[in-house]
UniProtKB/TrEMBL annotation:
One of its GO terms (biological process) is glycoprotein catabolic process. It catalyses: Hydrolysis of terminal, non-reducing beta-D-mannose residues in beta-D-mannosides. Keywords: Glycoprotein, Glycosidase, Hydrolase. The lineage of its organism: Bacteria, Pseudomonadati, Pseudomonadota, Alphaproteobacteria, Hyphomicrobiales. This is beta-mannosidase. Transmembrane segments: none annotated. Residues 750-802 form the Beta-mannosidase Ig-fold domain. Residues 16-185 form the Beta-mannosidase-like galactose-binding domain. SUPFAM superfamilies: (Trans)glycosidases (SSF51445), beta-Galactosidase/glucuronidase domain (SSF49303), Galactose-binding domain-like (SSF49785).
């Protein structure tokens, strides 16, 4: 039986009580968790995601909240030094133990470990975390600034978020609900300091020419007074004991493991994801770091266009295919590893190998990066600064230094984390505000102080890791317009969405690496039904407008439909068409930019996921189901893919093949002319080859040779088994007098909870989407059929045992009542 004095840690997670400091509201609260979720569970506020409830819960962030619990400490346990281990408090908070202030916290991205020995007592102890309103704290800090620091009001209806080290999207974003959540998110544990605690475990690897790797593991210990600490370093079967004399404060100890014939970690699609677990053990603690052995370089060599931007992993340049990641949920209590794994798996299933953890959210928890390591998803990790200007006062920069030091040491061992980036769009933000336009010198210097602080702290914490100053930027100390300059660096290309340019406009730029570009769509109907009543199902209803956070977003979606399509006949058709056009927009960009390889070496579209049910640029619905675009993504991100790309003058249509694999491939391409009634006529067939890691033009068709009332269909098969198909329309879809496809569905339950659904077309069916009335995933979707053709898809309901009904939409059906 455990003696009380053997207790070295008391886990304080569980049920706490939350009370507004004006004593008006009280509820029990699950910790880790957020206050809004506790109030929802207690029935004190409605679900903010439903209807227009967002407005009705805003008051929560205007109050101060005390989160409290008691715990017992047996008298014989009192001896020794004790500290609290707090993973994350959101954000400006005072922590009291038995009425004694033990911590003032103001950074949600830092781990705090205050000493609490003096405040502890035998028997019942009371721990209170008093979280101050971030609205009030932001205003107070803004008033204390030596000069005004603007924030993006078009993103954030809640002011002064830039004053606080807290996810910037909590104050509202052009896809997020603005409720400024607050709470305690990480672990919260009372721990006894047994000689010393492990503060950090970091690793560095040195790769030798013969393939062997030296892995240096450094443990940093914190002690209150000098002592002797037995430490074990372990890697697989190898376990080494080192006794170390620790001083008061920090002491470091490094051990080197030599690994002969190492198994390397590779990005998805390029090899296996070998993981080695490194352990550092003391008598009371074990810290595990999952390490992958890989070398990463960022190639920025100069060339004729400017300079390259290519990631090289283990000596191979990797074309980065992926998307931007935002927090998994607007309410932290709703985030869980199962749902996040599903989102990440969807990224890999759609042939992605990289995600950019965007700078307006969180540094994600360890398990997020474990999943990325395991799945082979490289992570472009932003530091958490986005779209605003920021203070550069000494106290702010000190806070940032501590944050960067902690986060980088926590995460840098993950093989998935390949690049650290200073911020999101802070250079561009210098041009967005009257104040910074008027006095650019002041704000630019202020920015550079912040950026330099991040860089110095990052390089100290992870020497040798890759640093990129900002996204987007054309290069080091380049403060020009990286939204429109495409010769160097990474690019955010927003002209199609934010500047209302046509889809073709994507082909007017040749990015070296496009780290953001996006096009909005509506969230799928089953998700709509979770927040809107039938009478709200209209794009101009107040509920729909409150679930569209980008000013002008609905007009852009509708306006694009006018540009390319006949207007959809009803609301579900509008939703469907919004998703199809989104997929077509992003496909236009990706297919062209991939065809520029190796000039372009990456495309990360905006954005993978949603934080709540909203109209947005995501390809995955809130909840993880695939929008039409995600099925298209899987095709246009296939490692070997063929695309029909019109020339700039429109006179030819070139068939480009791109090969991201290390082996050469041969490709058989067949093309057909397809009439509006869906009859196919063989046109040209060709065999071509594409070397490893290249893009080639297979052949071109002269546009004038194509009959006006026919579509160009094509399908390809590559020698490595990859295959695909598509169609090209010379003008716009709206110019086509499409006819009813006469699609029929034949549903066969497979007996394993899944359903085989066979679609058969009588005529031409474009952009067919099969839909179920329950959540789930299709084996494929967003496809075409010509007359007499069939396709069988498998539907897997999210809930086993569901009995869905199925229906379909295609381009003709969505714009006419005749089907
Ligand atoms: C980019 C991002 C986000 C934003 C998105 C859509 O600039 O960095 O700030 O949500 O555009 O506007």
């Amino acid at each position: 039986m455990t003696q009380a004095s053997d207790i070295t840690a008391i886990d304080l997670s569980g049920t706490w009580t939350v009370t507004s400091t004006d004593a008006m509201h009280t509820a029990s609260m699950r910790v880790p968790g957020d206050v809004h979720s506790a109030l929802i569970a207690a029935g004190l506020i409605p679900d903010p995601y439903a209807g227009r409830n967002e407005r009705d819960v805003r008051w929560v962030a205007g109050k101060d909240w005390a989160i409290e619990r008691t715990f017992d400490l047996p008298p014989e346990t009192l001896e020794g030094d004790w500290y609290l281990d707090i993973g994350s408090i959101d954000t400006v908070a005072s922590v009291y133990l038995n009425g004694v202030l033990v911590l003032d916290a103001d950074n949600c991205f830092r781990r705090y470990r205050p000493a609490v020995t003096e405040a502890l007592k035998a028997g019942e102890n009371t721990l209170k975390v008093l979280i101050h309103s971030s609205i009030a704290a932001g205003a107070r800090r803004q008033a204390e600034q030596p000069f005004f620091i603007p924030w993006s009001t078009s993103n954030s209806p809640i002011a002064n978020g830039n004053m606080l080290r807290k996810p910037q999207c909590h104050f509202g974003w052009d896809w997020n609900i603005a409720i400024a959540p607050l709470g305690i998110y990480g672990e919260i544990v009372l721990r006894r300091l047994e000689v010393a605690r492990i503060e950090h475990v970091t690793t560095r690897q040195f790769h030798h020419a013969d393939g062997a790797v030296d892995l240096y593991v450094t443990a940093t210990f914190h002690a209150e007074e000098p002592g002797i600490l037995p430490v074990h370093f372990a890697l697989g079967e190898e376990r080494v004991r080192l006794d170390i004399g620790v001083a008061a404060g920090e002491t470091q100890l490094t051990h080197m493991f030599s690994i002969e014939k190492p198994a390397l970690w590779w990005p998805a699609g390029h090899g296996e994801q070998a993981i080695y677990a490194v352990r550092v053990e003391t008598p009371t603690e074990t810290v595990v770091r999952r390490v992958g052995l890989r070398r990463v370089e960022l190639i920025t060599d100069k060339d004729e266009a400017g300079s390259r931007f290519a990631l090289k992993v283990n000596g191979r340049e990797i074309f980065c295919r992926g998307a931007n990641w935002i927090p998994a949920d607007a309410l932290p209590s709703r985030i869980n590893p199962v749902a996040v794994r599903d989102l990440l798996q969807s990224a890999v299933d759609a042939n992605m190998n990289m995600l950019r953890v965007w700078g307006g959210g969180f540094y994600e928890p360890d398990w997020f990066y474990d999943l990325c390591d395991e799945l082979g998803l490289m992570v472009w990790q932003d530091f958490m600064f986005a779209c605003n200007l920021y203070p550069s006062t000494v106290d702010f920069l000190d806070n940032v230094t501590a944050e960067v030091d902690y986060q980088v040491r926590r995460l840098a061992s993950h093989p998935s984390v390949v690049l650290w980036c200073g911020d999101n769009e802070l250079v561009g933000a210098l041009t967005w505000f009257e104040e910074s336009r008027r006095d650019r010198d002041r704000y630019l210097v202020s920015y550079d102080r912040l950026n330099r602080t991040i860089e110095v702290a990052m390089k100290k914490a992870a020497p040798g890791a890759i640093w990129w100053p900002s996204s987007p930027t054309s290069g080091y100390l380049d403060f020009a317009d990286a939204w429109h300059a495409d010769g160097s660096g990474d690019m955010h290309y927003w002209s199609v969405w934010h500047e209302n340019k046509s889809f073709d406009n994507y082909r007017t730029v040749s990015p070296r690496f496009c780290s953001e570009f996006g096009f909005q769509s509506y969230t799928s109907m089953p998700v709509m039904q979770t927040f809107a009543d039938p009478e709200d199902m209209n794009i101009a209803s107040p509920v729909m407008e409150s679930h569209q956070k980008n000013a002008g977003g609905n007009e852009r979606i509708a306006g694009t439909m006018f540009r390319y399509f006949r207007f959809p006949k009803d609301f579900p058709s509008f939703v469907y068409l919004s998703q199809i056009q989104q997929g077509l927009a992003i496909r236009t960009a990706v297919e062209y930019w991939r065809s520029l390889k190796p000039h372009c070496m990456g495309t990360l579209y905006w954005q993978l996921n949603d934080t709540w049910p909203v109209a947005s640029w995501s390809s995955l619905d809130y909840g993880g189901s695939w929008k039409a675009m995600h099925y298209m993504v899987r095709r246009f991100f296939q490692p070997v893919a063929v695309a029909a790309i019109p020339s700039k003058d429109g006179e030819t249509i070139g068939f480009s093949v791109v090969n991201d694999t290390a082996e050469p491939v041969t490709v058989t391409l067949d093309t057909w002319l397809v009439s509006l009634s869906g009859e196919r006529r063989p046109y040209r067939s060709i065999e071509g080859a594409c070397g490893p890691d290249r893009a080639e033009m297979l052949f071109s068709v002269v546009s004038a040779d194509l009959p006006e009332d026919a579509l160009l269909f094509w399908s390809f098969k590559a020698s490595n088994g990859m295959a695909g198909e598509g169609h090209h329309v010379s003008g716009t879809y709206k110019a086509l007098d499409l006819q009813a496809s006469g699609l029929t569905l034949d549903v066969a339950p497979r007996g394993d909870g899944r359903f085989a659904v066979t679609a058969t077309a009588r005529g031409l069916a474009l952009h067919v989407m099969l839909e179920a009335d329950v959540p789930g995933r299709w084996s494929d979707n967003a496809f075409d059929l010509t007359a007499g053709a069939q396709k069988t898809l498998v539907f897997t309901p999210s809930e086993h045992g569901a009995e869905p009904t199925f229906h379909w939409l295609d381009l003709h059906a969505c714009q006419t009542h005749q089907d």
